[in-house]
Structures are given as C-alpha cells and as structure tokens.
Design goal:
- The protein is of the alpha+beta class.
- The protein has a single domain, classed as Sulfite Oxidase, Chain A, domain 2 (Alpha-Beta Complex).
- Helix content is about 15%, strand content about 25%.
- It has a five-stranded mixed beta sheet with strand order 2-1-10-5-6. Strands 3, 4, 7, 8 and 9 form a five-stranded antiparallel beta sheet that branches.
- It is globular.
- The two termini are about 15 Å apart.
Length: about 220
C-alpha cells in the first residue's frame, strides 16, 4: 500500500503486535534479509504497460495530499554520515538520473505499473558519506508518515528518489516533490513527500511497521 499517513484526517489504529506474532515477524525479517540479493532486479515493463490512471491510495482523500512549494522544499540527510546536507530539487536533479518502468505492489492485493525517474538513493548516500555498515535508513515525510529500510536495499540499483512520473515532475498525489521508489519492496515502503533521510543503527520502525506490518516487506 502506498499510503503516507499524516496529521490531516488520518485514522489511528491500536497496535496489531502481539508477542508471538512479533517473534514470527522478526524471524521472517531475518530470513528475507538473508535471501535478499542486492543484484537481482525487479521486473521491468514497457512504457505501454503503465497503468492509467495510476491509482492514489491513502487513508485521507486525495485533496489532503501535502502540497509543497518545490522552491521551498529541502531534503535533509543526517545521522551516521560524514556531512549533513539539505538537498534542493535542483541539486537532486544535478545527479545522474535513472528511469524505470516497474510495478508497485500493494499489501492490499492490487498493483499498478508506473514510469518513475530520479536519482539513485545510493548516489545521495555516497555524496554525504553515509556509514555503509549502518543497519537502517529511515524516511520521514511532510505528512508525518515514516518508514525505514536496510542498507542493502538502499543500495539496490532500482532504489531511487523519484522526482518525475511519466517524464514530468511528480504530481501531488504521487508524492511531490520527491518520493522513495523501491520496487523490491511492498508499496507501503515507498514513502511519499520525503523531507528527511536518516542513517542509523537504532531500529526506527515506521508508521505501519509499528502496527505489526512486516518490516523487511520484500517481494
């Protein structure tokens, strides 16, 4: 699911976690981590396969999606890095860009193919001198949604900070001005409207992960 939770009309749920299920989920995370191959690519499609219209999915109406002025927006990268940096859109666009036509798979059972372009997350992490031995990369968003991934997944060649959809700047419903696009994981890992990336060894969880969703969430 590509929901990005937030303060505007977001439903609050009690934790789904129970000790026994928690242990099973932790075991699944460890197994998925061992099995994950950072060189294996998710399936790619032709531009003609793009789903139209590409669906919007959230717990709030589409009209509640964050509207951010690109000229004011900055992406802060901090934590276990050599130099903290706040990136502007123009700085991110100055990196070599990648385009992918990949399928977003929602945990609810639906999927959709989209064409995304942006900067590899690995390029940004290398630029700031991220500690590559760190365990987690956390993402925080303009609407208070958050999620996190492992460092191997962060450096997967298809993991990008998407700035464009179908060759144009990201529309507001799809996570403008910058979102995580990670086709090797379920949709709820694909955080929208990112404002902060943090490299850490402290387990950061996430909006859905804290409510019992599997953390690794690999496909």
């Amino acid at each position: 699911m590509t929901f990005v939770g937030g303060t505007a009309g977001v439903m609050s749920f009690p934790s789904l976690r129970e000790p026994a299920l928690d242990r099973v989920s932790d075991f699944n995370d460890k197994v998925q981590d061992v099995l994950f191959d950072p060189t294996t690519l998710a399936q790619v499609y032709e531009p003609s396969d793009v789903t139209s219209p590409f669906p919007f999915n959230a717990f709030y109406p589409e009209s509640y999606a964050p509207r951010i002025q690109g000229s004011d927006w900055r992406l802060s990268v901090d934590g276990l890095i050599e130099k903290q940096h706040d990136f502007s859109i123009s700085e991110l666009r100055a990196f070599p860009q990648e385009t992918q036509v990949t399928r977003l798979i929602c945990i609810e059972g639906w999927s959709a193919v989209g064409e995304w372009s942006g900067v590899p997350l690995s390029s940004v992490l290398n630029f700031v001198g991220a500690d590559l031995s760190a365990k987690f990369v956390e993402f925080r968003c303009a609407d208070d949604y958050r999620t996190s991934i492992d460092m191997k997944s962060a450096f997967h060649p298809q993991t990008i900070l998407a700035l464009d959809f179908l060759g144009r700047s990201l529309p507001v419903p799809y996570g403008a001005p910058c979102r995580l696009r990670i086709p090797t994981k379920l949709g709820f890992k694909n955080a929208k409207s990112i404002t902060e990336i943090r490299v850490t060894n402290v387990y950061p969880g996430g909006y859905w992960e804290d409510q019992g969703y599997n953390w690794f969430a690999g496909l």
